[in-house]
Structure formats: C-alpha cells, structure tokens
Design goal:
This protein is an alpha/beta fold and 513 residues long. The protein contains 16 helices and eleven strands. Its cofactor is pyridoxal 5'-phosphate.
C-alpha cells in the first residue's frame, strides 16, 4: 500500500461505515423526499407567493460553519421545511402570475430523478451513445411538433438541434458562430466592425451575450419599436440601421428576432426581418423561448412564418412545456457553422467514432464540455403526454388568459394595453385625470401602488413592464397548478385593492378641496 498505511490504519477506521451511495438508505431517503414534495404541492396554494423576509435572513438562521460530522437526513429535511421554504418565492404556486411560468409535471420530476441517478457526462457520443442519440431524436421530434422546416432536423441532413441550459447560452453560441463566419471572410482584425441588432423589446440576455461574444457595446443596435407595430421590430427600421452601418464600413453580423417578447409577447415579423438581413449576409436567430411551445398548436404556427429563412431557432420547454428548468432547445440550419466555431479536440478525447464523422459530439455544440442528461425529461414529457395532451395544456392556459381579459374589460377603471396573443395579459388602471402628461403620471403612480399592494398580500404575485412610456401590470397565466378559481381569486384581489386605493385617493382629493 506504500504511503497509504496498513489495512487497520486510522485512515481505514475513519472511512469504515461511510457509504454515500447505499441503495437501501437511498430508498428510504427517496421515499421521504417524495413525501416532502407531495405535501409541498398539496399545500403550496396556502403559502405566501412572495416571502416576507429581509436580505440576509437565512445566514442568521443557519450555522456559520459546516458540520464536522454528518446530520440525519430527516432533520435536514425538517430544516428545509421550517427555514428555507419560508424564504422561497413559490414559482410553482397556482397564484404565481409573474414573469413567465416555469412549468413542471410529474413526468419531468421523475425523469430528472432518473437522469440524476444515471449521472452520465455525455460530452461526446462515445461517453454515452444512448444519451447523445436520444437527444438528437428528441430534438427532431419537437421540431416536427412545432412544424420547423426539415432543414433544422438531423433527419434533414445539414441541420440539427441541441439542448442548452437557457436562452442565454443559445444566443451566445449562435453569436459566436456568426462572428466566426464573418471573421473568416473579413479577417480576424475586423472584430471591432461587427454589428448585432435587436429591438428594444428583445430580452436583455441579448446584450449580455453580445458582451461575452466580444461585440463592442457601441456596435450593439437596440432598435426602437412603436405601439403602432404592437412593439414588434419594424423591417424598415432594421433596413435603415443595417444600411447606415454598412455604408460606415461596419459589418452587419447578427439579428435577433423574437417571437413572444418578455414584456408583452410581441412578435417580430420573422420573414420580413430575414429578408432584410439576407441582403447583408447576417445571421438571423429567432428567440421563441416562451411562445415557441404554443406552436405545438396549429393556430399559433403563423407566428413563425418565414422561419425557413433563418439560421437558428431557440425555445425553452421549461417555460411552458411542463419540462422544468433547465431545458432550452436550439436548432441550427447548418450544424457545421456552429460546431466549427465551438469545436475542441484534445488528445484525451479523440476516438474512432468521432473521427469517423458519423456521430454527434455535443461538446462542440455548447460553451462547456461536460453536460447532463437533459434530453431524458423532454423525451419522457413528449412520450408520456403526447401531442394532444400538450396542445390541450397550452390551450387551457390561453383560455385562462382570455378569461382574465374579459374580467379586466368588465371593469371600466381598467384597460388591456396591448392585444393578448398567448397567455400573457398587459393591463392597467386608466388615468383619471385625462390622457395628458398629468394623467399618465397619475396612472403610473396608481398602478405602481396597486402592484406593490397586491404583491405585499402574499395572495398573488404579478410583475410590471413599461411599453413605450406606459407603465403596465403583467398577468401571466400558466403555472402548472393554476385553475380558473385562482384567476378569479386574483381578479377579486385586484378589485379589492383597487377599491381601497381609489377610496384613499378620493379622500385625499376631498380634503384638498
């Protein structure tokens, strides 16, 4: 044993009895964990959606140092229930209407447990052939379900899909691919001339990805949108910006079009944007993180009209397709353009299948090398639920949003600010002082107060945005447990708090008179 000592050394006695993967112990802990999860879901409706805690609360309640000796699993679970849960924002609550939903399902939860148990590190085909091939098949399946053109599928030849963690990674990878393609044409000294374009409604992750990819901040064009265009990117505005940049000696490189923006689910005209970009040879990426899932339903697929002309598309099943975080699908028309820009091939990863060119090595489709078995949960969701049930899920959430629109429209104090497209409703209290500057300032103050009051109750959680110069409240239906009664209760709370706020405003006005 050399320097390890004899079998009866202190080292051996210290480790005797420690078995971190004892199957029977895991069986017991797994039962406890499942009971914890089921009880949580049964009671999550009663928890305040937003926690009533102050920054730093958790550090004051937990030990300053890790334990020298392990503690019992059940005592740690109890601590999770009594200390951690009260500080959680409950994204799974049926009263969660903020941001976009992070949907889950029993199948996805079970699949996540399975993938964690199998624990493959599938950086290339040889590292786990079934993991790679299941991902490729699943990406082709989902591409079929949302009716992506054949060119984005492995079955179609040059294209294919990969699972990333989030849209941020999908944007970054495609930005790098676009950058490398342009620099191959113009020379490496042209990096400072590359320009990327999006609308002012595009998710902020676009600017972050540009920064990481080395696009100078002065060359990131955030183009203005207008209410008249429902806050979609105007092809004419894009054409003028790209033309001006080209005439100035810059190189239009990348355009991000969005189908379902975060603020209002605005939809950029994909076909027209692609036509403009094609005139400059720029890469076009479509971010359909939220609304892409809706395209399982034929009635929403027109929002992707023109996608046959783009270079890449991404959507996040963890938002609306019951799959759980993290799971972002990225499809590319020409996989070689992506893998060439991200490929690494150290000696210790070389192998015959990879060198044959007949397999997919997903390490060359992403920023990192190691990767988890994300495909299993998406595959199992598609396989266990099927297209019909998933379409019904999407349509049910849209129906809830439509019901909420009718509730808002039934009260003359409120208005829906932009058309509802999917399951998000943007609404506000109308100005009471007219449509001028004073009225808008008053309306913003009232809506800010209303939102703060609503969220402070713990009975619902909504968020806001600003469209143009108008402050609006966002109501996003779609949490996995949300039913009509929760939407009705939220509307009842909104009216109740509005009555209180408007009553206090009237009282102040009367006193001033």
């Amino acid at each position: 044993l050399g320097g390890m000592g004899s079998l009866d050394s202190p080292l051996t006695s210290l480790t005797t009895g420690f078995n971190p993967l004892d199957v029977e112990e895991f069986r017991m802990q797994a039962h406890q964990t499942v009971d914890f999860i089921c009880n949580y879901y049964k009671n999550v409706d009663s928890y305040p959606v937003l926690p009533r805690v102050e920054p730093g609360f958790l550090r004051r309640l937990l030990p300053e140092s890790p334990p020298q000796h392990g503690e019992h699993f059940d005592s740690v679970l109890r601590e999770l229930h009594t200390i951690v849960l009260p500080g959680m924002t409950h994204w799974t609550s049926p009263n969660f209407f903020a941001y976009f939903p992070a949907t889950l399902s029993s199948v996805a939860l079970s699949a996540d447990l399975l993938s964690s148990a199998l624990n493959p590190v599938a950086f290339n085909w040889l590292a786990s052939p079934a993991v790679t091939e299941l991902e490729s098949l699943t990406m082709d399946w989902l591409a079929q379900l949302i009716d992506l053109p054949e060119c984005f599928r492995f079955s179609g030849g040059s294209g294919g899909g990969v699972l990333q963690a989030t849209t941020s990674e999908a944007m970054l990878c495609t930005l790098v691919a676009a950058r490398e393609a342009v620099l191959a044409r113009t020379g490496q000294d042209g990096a400072g001339r590359l320009v990327a374009y999006s609308s002012d409604q595009t998710h902020s992750t676009f600017a972050k990805a540009c920064k990481i990819a080395g696009i100078p901040s002065c060359n990131v064009r955030i183009l203005p949108t207008r209410r008249e265009d429902d806050f979609g990117l105007s092809p004419e505005t894009l054409r003028a910006a790209m033309k001006a940049d080209a005439e100035a000696g810059l190189v239009p490189t990348y355009v991000c079009a969005t189908v379902g923006t975060t603020s209002s689910t605005a939809v950029d005209p994909v076909g027209a944007v692609s036509e403009v970009a094609a005139g400059h040879g720029a890469w076009v990426h479509v971010d359909a993180a939220y609304a892409g899932s809706a395209c399982l339903c034929p009635e929403f697929r027109h929002h992707l009209y023109g996608v046959d002309r783009v270079d890449s598309v991404s959507m996040s099943p963890h938002k609306w397709l019951l799959t759980g975080l993290d799971c972002c699908c990225l499809w590319v028309r020409d996989k070689a353009r992506l893998t060439t820009s991200l490929s690494i091939n150290p000696e210790y990863l070389k192998n015959r299948p990879s060198e044959s060119g007949s397999v997919v090595d997903y390490k060359d489709w992403q920023v990192g090398v190691g990767r988890r078995f994300r495909a299993l949960k998406l595959y199992m969701v598609l396989r266990c639920y099927g297209a019909t049930n998933l379409q019904s899920h999407i349509r049910a959430d849209v129906w809830l949003a439509q019901a909420f629109v009718r509730m808002v429209q039934s009260d003359p104090r409120f208005e829906v600010v932009v058309p509802r497209r999917f399951a998000l409703v943007c609404f506000r209290l109308k100005p009471t002082l007219g449509d001028g500057e004073a009225g808008e300032a008053e309306a913003e103050a009232l809506n800010r107060r209303l939102l703060e009051t609503l969220n402070s109750t713990g009975r619902a959680y909504l968020t806001h945005t600003v469209l143009g110069s108008t402050y609006v409240i966002r109501f996003a239906a779609g949490a996995s447990l949300t039913q009509l009664r929760h939407v009705e209760a939220a509307w009842g709370l909104i009216k109740e708090k509005t009555d209180e706020i408007m009553g206090s405003v009237d009282l102040v006005s009367a006193r001033e008179i």
